[in-house]
């Protein structure tokens, strides 16, 4: 049985450095370098929608049924404004995901940080409408959301960390060009009513 897809708000990475050779050079630092196609920078991770909805139902002790949480969340995601493409920069590789992911730490323009903050504020508003109390506690404890840290670190996952050390590792500065925001796996959201 296939695993349901994770839902995120993200921007696709169109280019790292000056071209493929700059990206491939990262293979000397990280293990299992990912293909450049499909690289992305996550702005907000929602997780598997059904799991997120169950987290809400459990937290509200059934006051918000999972079905209502699914439709409300899908409606909110579809209403989000699009963030235009932008360019960031990276000069180091960091370890994320409890030590299992190597990522380019990306310095992004202020308007991108502001957009990400607006996503978190929107998530707060959504959860409030879905009758979640102690929203900050819910966000940090929801297994579906998977927030490990209270602050956002813009990054592009590129592979697994090298076998030595915990990083970070400095790299020659490179541009990271990103396209407009999108809902990853948005086609799996329930149909709009």
Task: Write the topology of this structure.
Layout: E1 6-16, H1 20-24, E2 40-48, H2 49-59, H3 66-79, E3 86-96, E4 101-105, H4 110-129, H5 135-141, E5 155-159, E6 169-178, E7 182-184
Antiparallel strand pairs: 1-2, 1-6, 1-7, 3-4, 3-6, 4-5
Main CATH class: Alpha Beta
What is the helix tally? 5
Tally of DSSP β-strands? 7
| Computed Rg | 18 Å
Q: Flag low-confidence runs.
A: none
Shape: elongated
CATH architecture: Alpha-Beta Complex
Terminal Cα span: 28 Å
- Average pLDDT, rounded to a whole number, is 93
Gist of the model:
The protein is an alpha+beta fold and 193 residues long. It has helices spanning 20-24, 49-59, 66-79, 110-129, 135-141; strands spanning 6-16, 40-48, 86-96, 101-105, 155-159, 169-178, 182-184. Helices cover 30% and strands 28% of the residues.
Keywords:
alpha+beta, Cyclic Phosphodiesterase, Chain: A, 5 helices, 28% strand, elongated
Describe it.
A hairpin with a 4-residue loop joins strand 3 (86-96) and strand 4. The model has no long low-confidence stretch (mean pLDDT 93). Strands 1, 2, 3, 4, 5, 6 and 7 form a seven-stranded antiparallel β-sheet that branches. The chain contains five helices and seven strands. Helix 2 crosses helix 3 (66-79). The protein has a single domain, classed as Cyclic Phosphodiesterase, Chain: A, CATH 3.90.1140. With 193 residues, it is α+β, with helices and mostly antiparallel strands.
